[in-house]
Amino acid sequence: MSGYQSSLLKLLDERGYIHQVTDAEALDALASKQVVPGYIGFDATAPSLHVGSLVQIMQLRRLQQAGHKPIVLMGGGTTKVGDPSGKDEGRQLLSHETIQTNIAGIRRVFERFLTFGDGPTDAIMVDNDEWLSKLEYVPFLRDVGRHFTINRMLTFDSVKLRLDREQPLTFLEFNYMILQAYDFLELSRRSGCRLQMGGSDQWGNIVNGIELSRRIDGTEVYGVTTPLVTTADGAKMGKTARGAVWLNAEQLSPYDYWQFWRNTQDADVERFLKLFTDLPLGEIAALVSAGGAAINDAKVTLATAATAMLHGEEAARAAEETAKATFAGGGVGADLPTLETDDADLPIVSILIGLGFVDSKGEARRKIDEGAVRVNGEVVKDPMAVVATAEEPVKISLGKKKHGLLTRS
């Protein structure tokens, strides 16, 4: 369906968030006449989410911008089970204490993107452990489990792909989709929730929740999924050679976060500006229409806007200035990754590992042999070279995009 009437679906559609919608006409009508509480679930497997979750975080931001109520559902209960979607093996089970610590870290990210409070469109955060851990097994099987058939559950990609690869799928994980469906029912009852959003891989789970709410309570609820966000070369969003692009500053510095967006491929800039910034569509069109070398200005705009949204304007501007000093002027910016040492000198191989530029001594030596390593702009040719530390920071570079500082502590 196109030609949406509600500001919600118009906004999601024009900025590229819609992949599938259940009963788009009815959802459009509902969103046109009332505040729609909508939720997305996030499991707490780490103390931070990474940029692969950002499109879902932005979906909740758009929901609030369109005058509706975001519900952030933290999976304190479902994290104890494990979502089999896209996984080849079972998730490591975490303690209750670890899960709660992770939720506290993740909440700080959401506070950057959403306005929380008690108002009709203020965001709320809830934890499904509040109801899932209190369920009694036999009543749950009788009241909820009878609405699910094994035949249908085996057709869902989250299960089917795992079995096709002949990877074990535990009964624990097999229950995940039932628990997620029950979350929708519970949020409908507790908070009047009428919408679940998520990535395209969650379509089956969302449909399960819609059908469960209809069968048990007779309530009409809806689902919207986003396209799977991949880069122009087909890589999964947020996966880099150095690992995940975390959203908490403790896991990834604002400078490295800025640099991640600055390195966006040309073909992805317009789409990422629409998805991950609040820039008006007209301004985005003007930025990318210039073409040629101007695309780099658009990348800087993307990097600064995305970083400001997560880490604040000051951190974003500092990252931009550091990049200018490092790349344009050949200078040293204050926000570069830094390795401090008490030693008078350090082997270049150890420095590259310490800065996180490489994972092993062998990789470091190969980069040196390729002529990719520089110290204060001078190419290093000897893998056995040592670098003297001094009061002034020493600039270490790997290729054109990785730069760091060696300092005496």
TrEMBL record:
Keywords: Aminoacyl-tRNA synthetase, ATP-binding, Cytoplasm, Ligase, Nucleotide-binding, Protein biosynthesis, RNA-binding
InterPro entries assigned to the protein according to its UniProt record, in alphabetical order: aa-tRNA-synth_Ic, Rossmann-like_a/b/a_fold, S4_RNA-bd_sf, SYY-like_C, Tyr-tRNA-ligase, Tyr-tRNA-ligase_bac-type, Tyr-tRNA-ligase_bac_1
Enzyme class: ligase
Sequence motif 'HIGH' region, location on chain: 44-53
EC number: 6.1.1.1
Motif ('KMSKS' region): 236-240
Residues engaged in binding ATP: K239
Pfam families referenced in this protein's UniProt entry, alphabetically: SYY_C-terminal, tRNA-synt_1b
Catalyzed reactions: tRNA(Tyr) + L-tyrosine + ATP = L-tyrosyl-tRNA(Tyr) + AMP + diphosphate + H(+)
Amino-acid positions noted as binding L-tyrosine in the UniProt annotation, renumbered to this chain: Y39, Y176, Q180
Record domain Tyrosine--tRNA ligase SYY-like C-terminal: where: 334-391
CDD domains xrefs: S4 (cd00165), TyrRS_core (cd00805)
Major subcellular location class: cytoplasm
Compartment(s) of residence: Cytoplasm
Gene Ontology molecular function terms on file: tyrosine-tRNA ligase activity
Family the entry assigns: Belongs to the class-I aminoacyl-tRNA synthetase family. TyrS type 1 subfamily.
Function: Catalyzes the attachment of tyrosine to tRNA(Tyr) in a two-step reaction: tyrosine is first activated by ATP to form Tyr-AMP and then transferred to the acceptor end of tRNA(Tyr).
Subunit relationships: Homodimer.
Classification via HAMAP family: Tyr_tRNA_synth_type1
Protein name: Tyrosine--tRNA ligase
Underlying gene: tyrS
